[in-house]
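Methods: example folding runs. The two proteins below were folded one after another, and each record is reproduced exactly as written to the output file, sequence line first and structure-token line second.
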Amino acid sequence: MVDQHFSMDAHGMTKHIVILGAGTGGTLVANRLRRLHTDEDVRITVVDQDGEHLYQPGLLFVPFGLAHGDKLVRPRQDQLNRGIELLQVAVERVDLADNRVVLADQRTLAYDVLVVATGATLVPGETDGLVGPGWMERVFTFYTLAGATALADALAHFDEGRLVVNVVDMPIKCPVAPLEFCFLADWFFQRRGVRDRIQITYVTPLDGAFTKPVASKMLGSLLKEKGVEVVTEFNTGTVDGAGGHLVGYDGRTVDFDLAVVVPLHGGADYVARSPSLGDELNFIPTNEHTLQSRVRPNVFVIGDAAGLPASKAGSVTHFEGEVVCDNVDRFLAGAELVDGYDGHANCFIETGFGKALLIDFNYDTEPLPGHFPYRIGLPLLEESRLNHLGKLMFEWVYWHLLLPGRDIPGVGSTMPRSGKRLVKTHQEVKA
């Protein structure tokens, strides 16, 4: 772990916090920090290359006509509290040695503390053939607004054949989303009366449906129950859109009539241009409990940009926010940082027909049955109408509680243990 102390400006001078990214993490951190400090104590500048904030969880629903793209986008500036400066410009690089950010227009921002919140980006060009012939014709992704919108039209006219949902590689944003797509596709085609003419196949590089054994076993059973074929340990090397084939590095092929692909993910491009900032995938090496970067003590990381053994999901960003802000505040005061983040993540998993299940876990604890957040609450690892309503209600929570950086009653940064029931060990599950 890097040293927790760093030379600051003279006592009493205004400190400058620069936040790269005005998505979920950057916005909630900026808003929380603004409430912790006066304008005289701290100046906060947020940088993002565009002015539109996208509610990414809503992209899952667009292909099935359950959400409309124009309702998922709001101005970034409107999500930031008064007293926060927003610069709409791309980042060229970060100079760690000089504590400054160089912008694409050649302006520079000197910082006392840097918060990296630029998330994960799609790099479909890294997979041979993915954006070649057939792209946005019979090969789509729902991980972008344009892709989800185009896919809606394709699904509406897909009446027979093989639909393949393929995760190219991990990590990806919202790891359960491809599974949710399979479940919703099953519901969608049944509602249209064509399900018996359509084969749905889920193709994953993992050895099961999910990364956590307990949840993987349950989700795998649910896929089987819904008639979804699962192809595991498939590492996609080539996508032949014109011919309708996925080709694995081991020579295996999976044929498709319509493919929904989750491309390779990486960190933001500027990270590669910033010496010593990121790893080979452009994610930032980060202390898994303090969320201080491992590259410089005055750099903190939140959300998908972090190189952590945690899911790249919106709930993770929310749970990290309290810890990041607390430790930035402690750093500015010269105090010891707290090991406040335990890898807490939870996900609503839409399963179709007005139902969803909920999983809640952290670095050390598998998703367990029971209830969240207390013994009386939402059911865990169990399909229910209540969880479906919870997933729908989350959009309101996102805009009105999460982004403004407000605390959600009963839901803290650490995983609650009340209400959970112990299950078999990893070895027993695998056996």
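Second run, written to the same file directly after the first:
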Amino acid sequence: MEYENAVGHIYDIQGYAVHDGPGIRTTVYTKGCPLRCLWCHSPESQRHEFELGYLPLKCLGVELCQNACVNACPEGALTINEPVQALKGSGTIQKVSIDREKCTGCLKCVDACIPKSLYSAGWNTTVDEVYNRVIKDRGFFQNGGGITISGGEAMAQFEFTLNLAKRLKDSGIHICLDTTGFAAEDQLAEILPYIDLFLYDLKHMDTVKHKNLTGVGNELILSNARFLAEHGAALQIRVPVIPKLNDGEENLRRAAEFCASLGDAVTLVQLLPYHKSGRMKYERLGWKYKLTNVEPPDDEFMQKALELFQGYGLNAQLH
């Protein structure tokens, strides 16, 4: 099958993924997303451009590298902190801090950082490079496994995602596309023949509240779900359950009704309880996490939500 060796921005490739579609999978994570969900657990996925991340625990101290990262920064965005106790009581070391106002994202400090405590959240790649990496995992793709193209929003890099899907399709690998549904209908129509299963998010059924929570309305998302269902796509609907934001009974019921209205196209509905695991990623990027007062829903609530969806005849499960 003809394809273009398009260039894309990605921030991770994870093997042995068991939550990104059926079976054991390898997931390719693209950078860039038009949504800004308040609960996003992958902030490094939001911006298309590469960003400076910092893991202070990996820093071995500027004494060891002779201030290499500080000297590499042309904007003076890195400064040396006061001495702190090193691990295992082996004296003190001095680490750096980042002035995010001064940082321009040139990433010269990343090249200079010996222990890689400073890192780039994202890198350039090509369709062939990704293919050559993920095809190595083919032996794990048994019992319905395969490749998932995720994000961010993979459709935001349409040429890269389309050509990667074409390249993979020729190999007979099962392909999932994890999408918010916020994309042009004609682009979804073009990529549809190369996708075996769409992992499709429903974040809120009220468009005004959806915009307050994600930055965009839901009209395009809902219409695209109907379009895919009407044109032979298989959909695995994913409903994040965020206390105080979208966990009201009316919203969950409307979501269940919508899923049921899509008919046999919906192979599975997954309810995804809010979790806190992404908070540390905000610190690494110098971002402020906005849901500090939100706690995960309890098991009893999630079970009731599951029963609500199952009551509409849906194949539903907790994720």
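Comment on the second run: Residues 249-261 form the longest helix (13 residues).
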